[in-house]
Structures are given as structure tokens and as C-alpha cells.
TrEMBL record:
It holds the Pfam family DUF5343. This is DUF5343 domain-containing protein. InterPro entries: DUF5343. It comes from the Bacteria.
Amino acid sequence: MESIPYAQTTGTLESMLEKIKTASVPEKFSQDFVSTVLGMKGGSARSTIPFIKKMGFVSDDGTPTERYREFRNPNASGKAIADAMRELYSSLFSANEYINNASTDELKGIVIQITGLEKNSTPFKKIISTFSALNKLADFDSRSYIPKVDFDEKEKSISIKSEKFVPEVKESINLSYTINLNLPATTDIEVFNAVFKSLKEHLLDN
């Protein structure tokens, strides 16, 4: 049987995520930051910090990750939660790739199947409540956020090599171009869509 992570207090998790959106990004996401800046004190707030790390928002040393920053972007926060859920609940998505659209009864059945927990147990109830709380914030279909493709960066540059060819017939000139694409190391299809869309608009259609 497999264990599934959950937040100790769903309400505290929801509140902490909401406060993360408005507070500045700290150097370290620590208990002091949660208590002083986010204004969340007590055991429930402290116990939520490890789950924020499990979501991939904070690294083991307390440093906020790129997903943490993405979540603070109003246009990408739903996508960040969806990405976190795919990792947190990989076993659930393996059992049903559309588990985020499943009914509560279907969700409960799969959790029981995977974990072997009793339906009335506290961990089972917390798994269901945590998944449901995150699912309300997630956007699994978002296409509104397209990562910025900076063509000035070395790893994301487009280099163009042109060669002028002049045949014996002086009246015509043929130009040939060699376009070398150095694409970023990513599996996000939107990055490639942005690259080729920009290439088409600025080079191929001119």
C-alpha cells in the first residue's frame, strides 16, 4: 500500500497559500517568515510548512522555488497548483488520469484502493479534504501562461547564418539561410510553441 501526503489542517493550508500570493518572496521560507510576515502562528501553521515543501514550492533548505514564484503570478497560479498536484498525487493520476474531474465518491474509492486506509480514519479524511482544497485552486487546462522566451539569452538564442549566392545570370539573386535553433531544456510544449510562433512572425513571413 502507498501513503499519500496531506495537510494537517486544510483551512490553514488555504490561508497560507493566499497569503503567499500577496507577501514578498523571502530568502528562506521559515517559521519566522510564516509567523512574522504571513502573520500565521501556532502549531497548525508550523505543521503546514512541510506540506508546502512537498508541493514543490520550497526546497529542502527553505529556499522558494520557481513554482513558488509562478504561483504568485495571477495568470499562472492555477497551473502551479495543478503541477504540484500531479506530483503529490501521482499514484491517483496513475489510477485515473482525470482524477481531478472525478466525483468525491470516485476519489474516495481510489484513495481506499491505493492506501488501504479505512474510510472513517483521520488520515483518509485529511487526504480527501486536502486534495479537494487544492483542486479548487488548480487549473489543469490553463494555456494562458506562456513562459517568456528571451532571445537574448545564450541558451534561448536564434542564430541566423546567411549565405549569398550569385549565379551566372546576373538578373537574379538567390539568398539561402541557415537557421540554427538552440532550444531550452524543457518539456513544456508552450515554450516550443512560443519559439516557433515568434520565428514565423518575425522571420519566415518577412
